[in-house]
Amino acid sequence: MWQLDVAISKLNRYASRDSGDTVEVVERPSGGLSIVIADAQGSGYAAKTLSNLVTSKAVGLLKEGVRDTAVHEALHDHLYHYRGGRVSCALITISADTKDKVCRITTNSSVPVYLVESNGNPIIKELSGSSNSLGIYPETRPCYLTIPLRPEIMIIAMTDGILNAGRRASRNLDLQELISCCLSVGKTPADLADCILTKAVELDSGRPSDDMSIAILSVSKREKDEERRTMSIVMPIREDMLASEG
Asked: Which residue numbers delimit the PPM-type phosphatase domain (predicted)?
């Protein structure tokens, strides 16, 4: 038996309490999962509000069975007409559709998505095709790609905070080399997501210049032949977010 693995790792911009990146996972009505990654312009509370709006609407439409490309177009129209073209939000949707046995990658973003196919030696492909973010230009359309939902594939998506890490200091993140190195030592999707995020923060000298998010969807072998589903989430909270004793 095989399983879908989802790993997400994210971090706020340095000295910012609110992230303009939001990542959601939703179960598809016909079977499978979708990951929704939104990166609103700017950072802080206003950007968080916008990315929350985009992901909540996207999740609602996906749960109703709306096609991924139609979700992107509807969200663009909403932002463009109700915000007057004054705000933008990058959006990436990765869907593993177990009914149609395909994986759909839909993007309104300039950040590439990476596909890893493992057949002994991992083959890493950068899925090209950049599209404008939602909300700015009329008639904006997403880029999309459909691939078979095969064993031992991995799809890696991220926001531009990771892609651009280190550029202010003229340092670049070689993602293909980093992914290859991590996979060569048998790192899990969760390990890989943390490794990429850690390297991006290191290139920004420990002070991320932008919000950073990475999401990985993979199809891996299941050790036990059972139908149980599990999810584990870790979210840090500051002490001032906790109720006082007494």
From this structure: 3-219
